[in-house]
């Protein structure tokens, strides 16, 4: 997402890389591609361009740092939970969920 500014564009650009990496590490390409897409969406919570846009819309222009400090713990918590979920889907008891 950082390279293209768009999660959709990043998925199109790096999707083939994710699928190739999945084959190398023995993980489902579907799971790794979905993980890449979800991580891009998660990154939008703390992306500078989104923080600036939200700050302008809600009348907090110039207070992007405040928004970042308030959203970062949520982003980190979601990332931690998401990491555990993906691990369980790749190697653990939730592997039945991945085609």
TrEMBL record:
Topological type in the membrane: Multi-pass membrane protein
Primary localisation category: membrane
Cellular component terms (Gene Ontology): plasma membrane
Keywords from the named record: Cell membrane, Membrane, Transmembrane, Transmembrane helix, Transport
Subcellular location: Cell membrane
Pfam family, one: Lactate_perm
Transmembrane segments: 72-90
InterPro entries assigned to the protein according to its UniProt record, in alphabetical order: Lactate_perm (IPR003804)
GO molecular function: lactate transmembrane transporter activity; solute:proton symporter activity
Listed PANTHER family: GLYCOLATE PERMEASE GLCA-RELATED (PTHR30003:SF0), L-LACTATE PERMEASE (PTHR30003)
Assigned protein family: Belongs to the lactate permease family.
Function comment: Uptake of L-lactate across the membrane. Can also transport D-lactate and glycolate.
Protein name: L-lactate permease
Provenance organism: Actinoallomurus iriomotensis
